[in-house]
Amino acid sequence: MIALQKRPTPSRALSLATPLIAVLITMIMGGALFAVLGKNPLEAIRTIFYDPVFGEFAFYYRPQLLVKAAPLVLIAIGLSLGFKAGIWNIGAEGQYIIGAICGAAVGLAFYPTESRLIFPLMILAGALGGWAWGMIPAFLKVRFGTNEILVSLMLVYVADQLLASMSLGLLRNPEGMGFPGSRNFSDFPAASSWINEAAGLHWGMAFAFIAVIFAYVLLNRHILGFNIRLTGEAPRAARFAGVNPTRLILFCLGTSGALAGLAGLFEVTGPSGQINIDFASGYGFTAIIVAFLGRLHPVGILLAALLMALTYVGGDLAQGNLGLPSAAIQVFQGMLLFFLLALDLLTNYRVVLKKKGAA
Amino acid sequence: MKLTKLLTGATLALGLATTAMADPTKVGFVYVGPVGDGGWTYEHDKGRKAVEAAFGDKVETTFVENVPEGADAERVITQMALQGADLIFTTSFGYMDPTINVAKKFPKVKFEHATGYKQADNVSVYSARFYEGRAVQGHIAGHMTKTNKIGYIASFPIPEVIRGINSAYIHAKKVNPDVEFSIIWAYTWFDPAKEADAAKALIEQGADVILQHTDSTAPQAAAQAAGNVITFGQASDMGEYAPFPRVSSIIDEWGPYYVARTQAVMDGTWESVSTWDGIGAGMVGIGEISDAVPADVKAEALALVDALADGSYHAFTGPLNKQDGTPWLAEGEVAQDYSDDGLAGMSFYVEGITAEIPN
């Protein structure tokens, strides 16, 4: 019988090194997968990990990595606060959608006015929308003791329906020839999140960096951050220390909702360009992986988001250049999470062989 | 617009390099689904293979599948242009704005966007008159239904889909005045699970004919399981479900168009055009009508195919009213492609359909 035994003191060094080891194992196993598919594994790995950053067209892909990573950072930072305290917001995707809808709606209401005030208002509306959507599971949890995992997840599907309804109804482009989708924000400079579109820079990136710094300071220098960590690591001790769980739940779900809403707003007014039925592209779910890959640490999340972005951008590159099927790329991304979780388990537990009947 | 200059410079350099070395013509394809979807993307990929078969070593094709519509599409299209593609086919409606954006940065590269309406000097648009195939479907369906209930799995409420519903309804009603349509909007082009659910729901409501405007074979499988329900292949022949439940199909034939456009690029005669071809030009094929259809119905259906092909009959011929009863086409009048109530932007049902277009 194989059994798992908790290690009394898990190695701290190993725990920090697991993401790197997981990436290495993923490269090896992924390379094997690509070899089985008849591709040169070294070339495939190079195309995914090296070419976007240092290859011939890196000048285009580097900003694209930031475009892809910025929403992941924003959302994952918010999620990590809750995850640290054992508050599980699984519905960031919904908060992302609602943030985008609210922000876009405010902007479109002013179309085609040109004013410097429009974009800040939209940012506010986006954050508020995401915050409100995050407060629903928070309120239900503190008031009725519902499970925030289920409620926040279910609200994603509600948000999806709202998105479809907005694309076909209220926010539909009146000049869109009857097709669904709002006006494109690229035709509305006052409401665009691009700082410099040609260079691939938008405000979401600036906010992502601010969020990283904000989270770092909060967790390391502020009593609220201390309470969050304490609640996650020792709930009983936290209660004795007088931590108010209700306030913590409201803060964590509200903040992660607001950050997800901001991510949605910056995405819709920049890279995506319009509210449309298929606007949601899974950032809210991918950010969960990013949060854990980054060890729930602000700087770790920043690096993890860049790594995830790399597998997406490099993955598309490998498809186009090497003819790898997209399913192989998805398996490759799945491997990364799988090996990370497996290594996490082995860091905290030891595998022991027990004789049958001994237990 | 520094990057624009840089990008143009890069393409210019590449363009010079390609002519100097007489490299093969590079043709890229961007797909919204997987090449194995058995429907829409599968047929586009057959078109790509037709290009390879026609030109052999003189052409080099690449494709990226499962590309979400939006920011990712823009990156993938740019990637192809950067890698030196001479001609790029973007094969889903949602790639319209990304295609136009990338085309602005790469004036030397030719783009072909499927099913959209935005043209540019280096962007052509092309689509097929699928509604002609729908007319044949409706004709057979009206004859074959015993419950007089026809289920329709629609994807997105865009003109192309609404045209299909109207055309099928008009021709079913013509041969069976008691026929009723139930329409389910799946809000997806390809999602086997959702499509199967929709098919099952329609069958439970009493439909014994299922028409689909989604790309997977899941509705075919659901009909097969039900046992007494007929279906039609969509985008692809779906012949593995013949002769029953699949009694016929609408087949997209992109190959000849793709070959012709590639030839035009090679010859230097490529021009931006808007192509909208039907059965007559061979872009829409009608799959073999199986023996499950009575011989006289089959003969009538084939006569309808011939009439549509030679132009002696138009699928939208008056007298026809809109759903609200207002007149649309007078006796003998045929619908215009581009006019206020034209086919290109069709956003209303014809009289007799009881459902409402989602709004």
From TrEMBL, chain A:
<feature type="transmembrane region" description="Helical">
    <location>
        <begin position="65"/>
        <end position="83"/>
    </location>
</feature>
<feature type="transmembrane region" description="Helical">
    <location>
        <begin position="12"/>
        <end position="37"/>
    </location>
</feature>
<feature type="transmembrane region" description="Helical">
    <location>
        <begin position="327"/>
        <end position="346"/>
    </location>
</feature>
<feature type="transmembrane region" description="Helical">
    <location>
        <begin position="299"/>
        <end position="315"/>
    </location>
</feature>
<protein>
    <submittedName>
        <fullName>Beta-methylgalactoside transporter inner membrane component</fullName>
    </submittedName>
</protein>
<keyword id="KW-1003">Cell membrane</keyword>
<feature type="transmembrane region" description="Helical">
    <location>
        <begin position="149"/>
        <end position="171"/>
    </location>
</feature>
<dbReference type="InterPro" id="IPR001851">
    <property type="entry name" value="ABC_transp_permease"/>
</dbReference>
<keyword id="KW-1133">Transmembrane helix</keyword>
<keyword id="KW-0472">Membrane</keyword>
<feature type="transmembrane region" description="Helical">
    <location>
        <begin position="117"/>
        <end position="140"/>
    </location>
</feature>
<feature type="transmembrane region" description="Helical">
    <location>
        <begin position="201"/>
        <end position="219"/>
    </location>
</feature>
<feature type="transmembrane region" description="Helical">
    <location>
        <begin position="95"/>
        <end position="111"/>
    </location>
</feature>
<feature type="transmembrane region" description="Helical">
    <location>
        <begin position="248"/>
        <end position="266"/>
    </location>
</feature>
<keyword id="KW-0812">Transmembrane</keyword>
<dbReference type="GO" id="GO:0005886">
    <property type="term" value="C:plasma membrane"/>
</dbReference>
<feature type="transmembrane region" description="Helical">
    <location>
        <begin position="272"/>
        <end position="292"/>
    </location>
</feature>
<dbReference type="Pfam" id="PF02653">
    <property type="entry name" value="BPD_transp_2"/>
</dbReference>
<dbReference type="GO" id="GO:0022857">
    <property type="term" value="F:transmembrane transporter activity"/>
</dbReference>
TrEMBL record, chain B:
<feature type="signal peptide">
    <location>
        <begin position="1"/>
        <end position="22"/>
    </location>
</feature>
<keyword id="KW-0732">Signal</keyword>
<dbReference type="InterPro" id="IPR028082">
    <property type="entry name" value="Peripla_BP_I"/>
</dbReference>
<dbReference type="GO" id="GO:0005886">
    <property type="term" value="C:plasma membrane"/>
</dbReference>
<dbReference type="Pfam" id="PF02608">
    <property type="entry name" value="Bmp"/>
</dbReference>
<dbReference type="InterPro" id="IPR003760">
    <property type="entry name" value="PnrA-like"/>
</dbReference>
<feature type="domain" description="ABC transporter substrate-binding protein PnrA-like">
    <location>
        <begin position="25"/>
        <end position="298"/>
    </location>
</feature>
<dbReference type="InterPro" id="IPR052910">
    <property type="entry name" value="ABC-Purine-Binding"/>
</dbReference>
<protein>
    <submittedName>
        <fullName>Purine-binding protein</fullName>
    </submittedName>
</protein>
